[in-house]
Specification:
A five-stranded antiparallel sheet has the order 1-2-3-4-5, with no helix packed on it. The protein has about 170 residues and is mainly beta. Helix content is about 10%, strand content about 35%. It is built from two helices and eleven strands; from the N terminus they run βββββαββββββα.
């Protein structure tokens, strides 16, 4: 599996935004950016063998900075509404920001989709891996937490939809 790394755009702060594309020998490819750790494209063959992008998204950094549906981006630390903006884990109560009435929706007011993530690529026997992280200093603890189901709670998902046949515009999806 091959990968390509290219500058894709620039943040308002002047920082470079990178696009990473993984591809295989069949032409299937997936692109991700360090802007929000966002999944940008997924090109697969249709029934006639023509490669088509099946991921809703945009073609520029500027569009992703104004991404109201958060296409392809990790939603936040939790993947839905938490009633009363609090939960209990192992007997300890955790209070969260109430950002959806009295509930917590997807984490906190400062979401992940408009931040630049650190990216690391690694070639291995199983192919190429691209890792995105926001909190490099706790990455090892995060991985252990997920594998062993210890605190803190983390449930990251992306807001990813496939394109419907004939609907290639992300602007039509609200």
């Amino acid at each position: 599996m091959a990968y390509r790394k290219e500058q894709w755009g620039v943040m308002p702060s002047g920082e470079a935004v990178t696009l990473y594309t993984l591809s295989n020998d069949n032409g299937v490819s997936a692109s991700f950016t360090d802007l929000g750790g966002t999944w940008v494209t997924m090109n697969v063959p249709d029934r006639d063998g023509k490669l088509v992008d099946v991921v809703l998204g945009y073609d520029s950094v500027e569009a992703y900075l104004e991404n109201p549906p958060h296409f392809g981006a990790p939603i936040g630390r939790n993947a839905n509404r938490i009633a009363g903006a609090k939960f209990t884990l192992n007997g300890k109560e955790y209070r969260l920001a109430a950002n959806d009435g009295t509930n917590n929706l997807h984490s906190a007011p400062d979401l992940y989709h408009d931040r630049l993530w650190e990216a690391e690529t690694e070639e291995g026997t199983l192919g190429t891996v691209i890792r995105f992280s926001l909190f490099n200093f706790i990455l090892n603890a995060f991985l252990l937490s997920c594998l062993h189901f210890h605190e803190p709670s983390l449930n990251i998902v992306t807001n990813q939809s496939k394109k419907n046949a004939g609907n290639t515009s992300a602007a039509k999806h609200r």
